[in-house]
Amino acid sequence: IEHNTIPGYTYGQPLSKSPISIEELLLLKKTVLFSEDDERLLRLAGDVLADQTKAVLDVWYGFVGSHPHLIRYFGQHEQLDAHYLAAVRKRFGQWIIDTCTRPYDEVWLAYQQEIALRHHLTKKNRTDEAKAEPIIHLRYILAFIVPLTLTIKDFLAAKGHNADIVSGMHAAWFKAVTLTAVLWSHPYSNPEEF
Ligand code: HEM
Q1: What is the pLDDT, as a whole number, of residue 101?
Q2: pLDDT tens for residues 150-187?
Q3: pLDDT tens sequence across 125-137
Q4: Is 2 among the domain residues?
Q5: Is residue 66 domain-resident?
Q6: Considering only CA atoms, which residue is closest to atom 14 of ligand 1?
Q7: ipTM for the complex?
Q8: Domain boundaries, position 170
């Protein structure tokens, strides 16, 4: 996979270590019922979604673009910033594949923290020199688990897998997105309360 052609995508580059340890990650995985089966099903989901990321992003961006309370995070004066949107879109597409195919190790954890900071006051707008809300409010990060999960199902079903496999991939995706949102909430919490 070609990663380094995506502006601002710094997966695997020297980043600060995640404040979450591998041991803590393992306990979180247990808590969201994430098993080796899920890992396998996610990898299959990665194959299924690989040539559909554009269509998935059209749905997600359509969702954001039809809600003024979300548009403000991607622009100013109720206008989406086209440059910002396009830049984030490339990394978002890569994230879909990364979520399905990358090992959830220290490198992955470090990039989760980086993306978390990019939603938080710490780093939002910096990567793309954008002018928009300076923070994605935590409540929407958590609420996004629902649209990001429910809207993926049709795409998972699009390659003719049987209903059980599709449900399995969908559950694995739900767990992965929930795990992600949990990790991304770290900058918003007092570390001892996380
Ligand atoms: C950036 C996913 C919630 C708006 C990103 C990126 C990903 C992503 C993958 C690009 C990361 C990178 O730079 O490599 C998600 C997921 C969410 C979530 C999985 C929830 C579970 C939200 C919400 C909003 C939002 C609620 C508000 C509309 C943005 C914006 C950026 C971004 C504006 C660019 C941030 C920057 O300036 O660097 N998101 N997102 N995201 N997301 Fe989210």
Answers
A1: 98
A2: 999 999 999 999 999 999 999 999 999 999 999 999 99
A3: 999 999 999 999 9
A4: no
A5: yes
A6: 91
A7: 0.98
A8: 22-193
Distance CA 116, CA 123 (A): 9
Q: How many domains would you assign to the chain? A: 1
The alpha carbon of 162 and the centre of ligand 1 are apart by a number of angstroms equal to: 31
CA distance 133 to 71: 9
Q: How far apart are CA 148 and CA 177, in angstroms?
A: 8
Mutation to probe ligand 1, out of 78, 113, 115, 179 (largest number of atoms < 8 A from CB): 115
51 DSSP assignment: G
Give me the pLDDT at residue 15, please: 92
Give me ligand 1 centre to Cα 163, in Å: 30
Residue 10, domain member (yes or no):
no
Name the residue with tokens 């995706």: 173
CATH code, 181: 1.10.490.10
Answer yes or no: is pLDDT of 1 > 70: no
